[in-house]
Amino acid sequence: MAAAMPLALLVLLLLGPRGWCLAEPPRDSLREELVVTPLPSGDVAATFQFRTRWDSELQRKGVSHYRLFPKALGQLISKYSLRELHLSFTQGFWRTRYWGPPFLQAPSGAELWVWFQDTVTDVDKSWKELSNVLSGIFCASLNFIDSTNTVTPTASFKPLGLANDTDHYFLRYAVLPREVVCTENLTPWKKLLPCSSKAGLSVLLKADRLFHTSYHSQAVHIRPVCRNARCTSISWELRQTLSVVFDAFITGQGKKDWSLFRMFSRTLTEPCPLASESRVYVDITSYNQDNETLEVNPPPTTTYQDIILGTRKTYAIYDLLDTAMINNSRNLNIQLKWKRPPENGYIHYQPAQDRLQPHLLEMLIQLPANSVTKVSIQFERALLKWTEYTPDPNHGFYVSPSVLSALVPSVVAAKPVDWEESPLFNSLFPVSDGSNYFVRLYTEPLLVNLPTPDFSMPYNVICLTCTVVAVCYGSFYNLLTRTFHIEEPRTGGLAKRLANLIRRARGVPPL
Amino acid sequence: TQLIFYIFSRDGACCLPFSSCYFLTLPDKMKIKCRFQKAYRRALDHEEEALSSGSVQEAEAMLDEPQEQAEGSLTVYMISEHSSLLPQDMMSYIGPKRTAVVRGIMHREAFNIIGRRIVQVAQAMSLTEDVLAAALADHLPEDKWSAEKRRPLKSSLGYEITFSLLNPDPKSHDVHWDIEGAVRRYVQPFLNALSAAGNFSVDSQILYYAMLGVNPRFDSASSSYYLDMHNLPHVINPVESRLGSSAASLYPVLNFLLYVPELAHSPLYIQDKDGAPVATNAFHSPRWGGIMVYNVDSKTYNASVLPVRVEVDMVRVMEVFLAQLRLLFGIAQPQVPPKCLLSGPKSEGLMTWELDRLLWARSVENLATATTTLTSLAQLLGKISNIVIKDDVASEVYRAVAAVQKSAGELASGHLASAFVASQEAVTSSERAFFDPSLLHLLYFPDDQKFAIYIPLFLPMAVPILLSLVKIFLETHKSWKKPEKTD
């Protein structure tokens, strides 16, 4: 057990120059960033990036000293002679049609691709050991990566960092689509951050909110970069990224407003003292078109405009290292409120309660011209209690028809209607002005085939039980109660036997 | 085990006939025989010259160069009673490099007295019972091994040493340490001296926002915070998850943590069981590592601009860490016999005969481990006969047995270096044979399960066949009997 050591005698004579050596200037730097983007479908996407740059050569063996760069990854780079490492864990799928193009997309499951240095002699052996070690660091089952799911792509995965030559023999790529991402994978990922979920942007990384999302992707990217413009020496860059998409319904109860507290259930309290830059960017592209559309609180001091992914976007910048923005007494909670509901309209949804009330879904949509709008709902099939089934359950269950009410613009202006004098078919619905008219349409009812149990099963059970009981009990009863007597051997043909049978039935003594 | 022991007599006295064999009896009926093998010669000229110099340190310096002493051996110089090499009241001297000086006397009982003195010196510098018992701690039953004694590190092919600086409050303290220079100047020479015992690799890291798991209590008398001795075991666990297990290496890891307490809990002291603060403010845990608390000088807060810059005094820190490293390896302070002068330490912090003692203990421990592993494997095979031993596993077992025999032979003849290497090889081969995954393959077809699978299929089919066989037999028996009857 542990014991306090008096250490009264110090056996050592420490010779050698004992001057005060000032520590060298810090050779690694950390930048952290959060980008919040409202998506066209009303959801909100948040992308965290933590970038650590380490100005050091890792090739030499010997003592390595780590500060902001995590020791676990640094030891991996030097032991397995890595040039680049990209590892991502994703749950969900980025729906480009509804959400727009992503910053960085990753496949569902776990993906690992690695470029080794050209000093490695046995790449497959290093690959196998590396995937085993990574599965230990990130608590994921990456040890299932073997030659059956590893490939060497020749064209699509070029090195993303510095590279002298690209011999594809040193590249390995593997995907595990079955891998599930959960809190167990997030915790070691957070431990690699220098401020480690105690200060700065990593305070927002709470597992119970981050996994309540439609899309969750966390990744680690290590690559060598140039240290300066002339590229005389290289540094190692570690980027840890986390992208989540919050569903509007879960966070905002149908409204498109969001705030940091509603999304992450935390606010930003203090900046990370180790970071040289710590910023939050909020996409306010729709702000500039019309000053009435949305309002961001607290108002940003600076904005940033650039062409991102092909379109011009404007971002509001909140700098955490700015003491006016955030200090000991104020937390930073960024809120966004929509002043006027955007084009997507209004949705009212009331979920069903079993045996009490049905689902109700109402949507107010503005349809663009010459377009097709599809509304789809997912449902699950479930079994009822066996007494609740109708006598003809295999027919299916009916879903009531949907109602479409619309104000259709009128091609020709109409005058307002006088109730008493116009014919009855003209005055079915009240019309406020002459530019559009009201119409209500219904769809067909929906017949849904639901699973039914096998209703003949009780009958089968009764038959089987009765048979077994009858056979066994009957045999026993016969054996116990039957009396045996000796019988004369029968003589005579078939006719005589039949005649005797008839006589016995009549009660007449036999022949 | 044996030590080779040379005695030089300066005045040409004759041999000293004392017995030089003793048994170390360890608990559980384990006996190890230790023998001293002696050889005598007269001093050579340059040695005479060295021995006539003014002080022992100069004599040491002059005696250094010419000889190459074999590992595991000791050299004892006999000087006359009136020599001025040693201070007047000291009878013997233990040097840092396998040498010792003993003063002879002119007396009737001279042989006995000098012999006793030499045996005391030899035992201080070489293998004793408690060193061996500490090395074999894992193989001895629990009750014989008291909780007071601390277990040294298990013998392994190499070790990884990690120095971590824990800064739980980076807003208040901007801590800088010149760990690279400190490792180069202080740790690396020590590890180079210890390199015969295994491969060492050193790493360092700085961890921010890493707290100790225990809240220190406030002592109003000294207006400082303190950690009680009872709280110390609970300190390590919460920190260990942040330290990062070494993913890239198979060797055991020794962690040395330097903790700079946060501003709210400064200064922080560790109290021993009497309530007095420990002088070095550090503690260590056997087989894990050590923790030292570094308090920031209160004068640096005068500027009152947070964060304050803190430069760690690496000399103070490295003194503590190296002393803890020695204790973790089991290199304890020797029991110095009375009236004996112990020389000052070498600059690396490790005396050569301390290294020898460590290697002796390690060799014995390796042999014990290898034999235990092989015995367990044999017992396992005796119990479960279904296990298939592949050829490479068998060759590992043969190699392990050969290495054990070679190591025991080398130990008996006193060649320490080759005995240690052979013992390491024995441990590696025996562990490789025992933990081979192919041994687990055929464990799941025992005989009773085979019966349980086949009986429900064949028994119902067999019963009617047997009954009809019986009926046929009866009928043929009856038909044989019938011709006899009718006849």
Question: Could you describe the 3D structure shown?
Answer:
Chain A: InterPro entries: PIG-T (IPR007245). Chain A: Residues 1-23 form the signal peptide. The complex is a heterodimer of chains A (511) and B (487). Chain A is α+β, with helices and mostly antiparallel strands and 511 residues long. Chain A contains nine helices and 22 strands. In chain A, a hairpin with a 5-residue loop joins strand 2 and strand 3 (44-54). The longest helix of chain A is centred in the C-terminal third of the chain and has 25 residues, at 457-481. With 487 residues, chain B is of the alpha/beta class. Chain B has eleven helices and 17 strands. A seven-stranded mixed β-sheet of chain B has the order 2-3-1-4-6-5-17. A five-stranded mixed β-sheet of chain B has the order 9-7-12-15-14, with helices on one face. Chain B has a three-stranded mixed β-sheet with strand order 10-11-13, with no helix packed on it. In chain B, a hairpin with a 4-residue loop joins strand 5 (92-94) and strand 6. In chain B, helix 1 (45-51) packs antiparallel against helix 2 and helix 4 crosses helix 8 (352-383). Chain B is flat. The termini of chain B are far apart. In chain B, 35% of the residues are buried. At the A-B interface, strand 1, strand 4, helix 1 and helix 3 of A face helix 5, strand 9, helix 6, strand 14 and helix 7 of B.
SS strand fraction of chain A: 25-35%
Largest sheet of chain B: 7 strands, mixed
- Rounded to the nearest angstrom, the radius of gyration of chain B is 33 Å
Looking across the biggest beta sheet of chain B, what order are the strands in?
2-3-1-4-6-5-17
How much is the average pLDDT of chain B?
79
Instruction: Count all strands of chain A and give the number.
Output: 22
Shape of chain A: flat
- What does the largest sheet of chain A look like? 11 strands, mixed
What's the N-to-C terminus distance of chain A?
Answer: 109 Å
Transmembrane segments (chain A): 459-480
Protein name (chain A): Phosphatidylinositol glycan anchor biosynthesis class T
Signal peptide (chain A): 1-23
Pfam family, one (chain A): Gpi16
